[in-house]
């Protein structure tokens, strides 16, 4: 678990670059430079600075899960048998070996973690839960929430002015 306590100072141009790249990571440097009003060399330099500082973590393709046969998406609230470093580490080691768990968040509230899980269908989801997730020895309880519809799934993170 790594906490990033240093908040980067971003100017208007940096924020515009981040907004554009989140919407279209495949944009050419030439087009990006036109869109932000800088020449290509300083544009590329700014993008590299944002990458090297860790603000831009990756570039990737977002897939339509339904079109590739992953029709069941769920959130699962997980409560551990004890909230201590050993149990947390053991839980994280186990879930990192389950590719269907695509997100894991350590949370406050009535549970310890919330997972986002994808599966091809309900049978595959049930098998995954019975044979893998519920078998993790430090798991005390699980509460599943099947996603029926998604109405907002923003790919653009708002970049605040500081």
Describe the structure.
The protein is an alpha+beta fold. Helix 2 crosses helix 3 (40-52). 35% of the residues lie in helices and 19% in strands. The two termini are 26 Å apart. A four-stranded antiparallel beta sheet has the order 2-3-1-4. It has helices at residues 12-23, 29-36, 40-52, 85-95, 122-133, and strands spanning 72-80, 101-106, 113-119, 139-146. Strand 2 (101-106) and strand 3 (113-119) form a beta hairpin. The mean pLDDT is 93. The chain is built from five helices and four strands. The radius of gyration is 20 Å and the shape is elongated.
Count up the helices: 5
Poorly predicted parts? none
Instruction: State Rg.
Output: 20 Å
Largest sheet data: 4 strands, antiparallel
Name the overall outline.
Answer: elongated
Kindly state the percentage of residues in helix.
Answer: 25-40%
Strand segment count: 4
Average of per-residue pLDDT values: 93
Q: How do the helices and strands follow one another from N- to C-terminus?
A: HHHEHEEHE
Distance between the termini: 26 Å
Please give the order of strands in the largest beta sheet: 2-3-1-4
Q: Characteristics of this structure?
A:
162 residues, four-stranded antiparallel β-sheet, alpha+beta, 4 strands
Report a brief summary of the structure:
The chain has 162 residues and is of the alpha+beta class. It has helices at 12-23, 29-36, 40-52, 85-95, 122-133, and strands spanning 72-80, 101-106, 113-119, 139-146.
């Amino acid at each position: 678990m790594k906490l990033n306590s240093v908040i980067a100072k971003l100017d208007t141009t940096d924020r515009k670059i981040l907004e554009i790249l989140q919407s279209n990571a495949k944009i050419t440097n030439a087009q990006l430079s036109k869109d932000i009003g800088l020449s290509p060399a300083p544009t590329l330099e700014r993008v590299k600075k944002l990458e090297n500082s860790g603000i831009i973590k990756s570039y990737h393709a977002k897939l339509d899960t339904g079109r590739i046969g992953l029709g069941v998406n769920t959130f699962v609230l997980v409560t551990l048998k004890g909230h201590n470093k050993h149990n947390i580490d053991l839980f994280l080691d186990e879930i990192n070996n389950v590719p269907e768990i695509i997100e894991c968040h350590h949370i406050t509230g009535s549970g310890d973690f919330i997972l986002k899980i994808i599966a091809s269908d309900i049978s595959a989801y049930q098998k995954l839960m019975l044979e893998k997730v519920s078998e993790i020895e430090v798991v005390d309880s699980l509460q599943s929430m099947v996603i029926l519809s998604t109405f907002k799934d923003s790919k653009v993170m708002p970049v605040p002015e500081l």
